[in-house]
Each structure stands twice: as C-alpha cells, then as structure tokens.
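Study this pair:
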Amino acid sequence: MEEENVLEDVRYLRDVVEKTQPPMVNRFWPVTLGWGCLVTMAYLICGLLAMKGKMAVLPWVWPVLMFGVGWPMNWYLVRRVRAGMAERGVRSRCRKDLMLCWMSIVAMGMLWSAGLAISGTLAHHWYVLFFVWGSLYFVGYVMNGVLLSEEWYWAAGVLLVSMIAALAAGPRFYWLVGVWTGGTLVLAGMLGRRNERRQAVAA
C-alpha cells in the first residue's frame, strides 16, 4: 500500500514538473500542418466565392470544411502521432486547456461569421471576415506558445505583421490576411517538425 502511494506521489510530482517546464517540442506538428493546408484552402474558397458575389454560400464554407473534413482529419492524425509516440516510448499528455481554448476560438469565429452574414456586412465588406478570424487565430497562437511550444510565437508574429501590412496596403491586399493565416499554421507545423528532429539528433 505504501509503495502504491509513493508511486502515485512520484507520478504527481512528474506531472507538475512537466507542466512547469518551458515549452520545447510540438510532437503534434503533423496535425498543425494538416490544419494549415485546410485553412488555406478554406480562405481561398471564401475569396473566390466573394469575388463571384456568392455571399449566401460564405457562412457554410467554414462549418462544412471544419466538421466535414477538419475534425475527421484531426482525429486520424492525432491517433497516428500518438501511436508513433507510444512506439518511441514518449509520453503523450492531453491538454484540455488547449483544447478548450481552440474550441472557444472556433465557436466565436463561427458566431462572428454568422452575425456578419446575417447583418449584411459581408455583402460589401467581405474582407472583415479575414480580420476577425486572423485576430482570433493570433490569440490562439499566443496561447499555443505559452502552453505548447515556442514556434507558435513565430507564427503569431508573422500573422500580426501580415495584418498590419494588409491594413497599410489598403483594401486590394486584405486577402493577404486570410492566405497568411493558413500559411502561419503551415509555418508552425514545419518549425515543429524541425524542432522535433533537432531534439532527436541531440538525444
């Protein structure tokens, strides 16, 4: 009985130490990379629909891609990454705080998108959607940097610069925010892949 209590205390202390360690490696970079490709595709579809004047379809693009493609892809990639980690003997931790953060971001983004569509704002100012989602992603990136791994700070910085550059350049370049939102996810995924390989070489 005493041995079980000691083991439980050791596990608890190990979890505390792991959670207080500075973020190093995001082993789930394939998931990040997959979402980056999907988000880039979503923004390109939204941009094409907006240029063709098909505003009524815009609110459905994100829900269809997120729930019809994104979540099944996420489920598959997460299982694949965890299986690979198990084979290498790497412990996988479920970050409920991070999951809650991104669920909130997606929910708020969809509410904003629906509100802008219902109010008729998208009919003449479709680019507002890019800045709304870009701002929400920026907050998520910073949270990822704090809770997950440091490469997300680079992604947040690139996204912020793209938003500022688009505002400075004028309406003709507002599409840049949308394209670079997906691009920053791809960047975070590639940096995560590089960091994981560097750690493997160092070990």
User: Anything to note?
Assistant: The helical segments are 2-20, 29-51, 58-88, 96-119, 121-124, 128-147, 151-169, 175-202.
